């Protein structure tokens, strides 16, 4: 954030205030949302929670879990389970679809 503030010719506090006034969110929350979006993409695969946390900028699995709960109300592990249930349901539905005519 310091680099962004400097590029805008503002103090960190002034930048944070202007950012919040314009977007309705803080720069920290915006960064966390971007990291969570990246983590969701990684969680769709089979990477470990520790790997996902590190590569999406949370550092540790505990930090990722806390951010997930704060933002979505469930843990990253629980989100992964929901995603897997949705995949299974989609496979079941596609297996039951009649063949195309012709």
Give the SSE layout.
Elements: H1 2-7, H2 12-23, H3 27-43, H4 49-55, H5 61-72, H6 76-96
Helix pairs in contact: 3-5, 4-5
Describe what you observe in this structure:
The chain has 102 residues and is mainly alpha-helical. The protein has a single domain (2-96), classed as Orthogonal Bundle (Arc Repressor Mutant, subunit A), CATH 1.10.10.60. Helices cover 74% and strands 0% of the residues. The protein has six helices and no strands. It has helices at 2-7, 12-23, 27-43, 49-55, 61-72, 76-96. Helix 4 packs across helix 5 (61-72). It is elongated and about 65 Å long. The chain starts with a helix and ends in a 6-residue tail after the last helix. The mean pLDDT is 90.
CATH topology category name: Arc Repressor Mutant, subunit A
Order of SSEs, N→C?
A: HHHHHH
> Under the CATH scheme, which class?
Mainly Alpha
Mean pLDDT metric: 90
Main sheet properties: none
Radius of gyration, in Å, reads 19 Å
Q: Provide a count of the helices.
A: 6
- Going by helix content, strand content and strand pairing, the class is mainly alpha
Overall number of domains: 1
Hey, roughly how much beta strand do the residues contain?
under 5%
Kindly state the number of beta strands: 0
Silhouette: elongated
Termini separation comes to 59 Å
- What ranges have pLDDT less than 50 throughout 5 or more consecutive residues? none
Which bin fits the share of residues in helices? over 70%
User: What's the CATH superfamily, by name?
Assistant: Homeodomain-like
């Amino acid at each position: 954030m310091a680099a962004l503030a400097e590029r805008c010719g503002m103090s960190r506090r002034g930048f944070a205030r202007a950012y919040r006034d314009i977007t309705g969110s803080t720069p920290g929350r915006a960064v966390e949302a971007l990291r969570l979006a990246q983590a969701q993409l990684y969680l769709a695969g089979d990477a470990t929670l520790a790997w996902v946390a590190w590569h999406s900028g949370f550092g540790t699995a505990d930090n990722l879990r806390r951010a997930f709960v704060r933002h979505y109300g469930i843990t990253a592990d629980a989100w992964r389970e929901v995603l897997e249930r949705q995949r299974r349901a989609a496979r079941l539905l596609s297996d039951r679809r009649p063949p195309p005519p012709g």
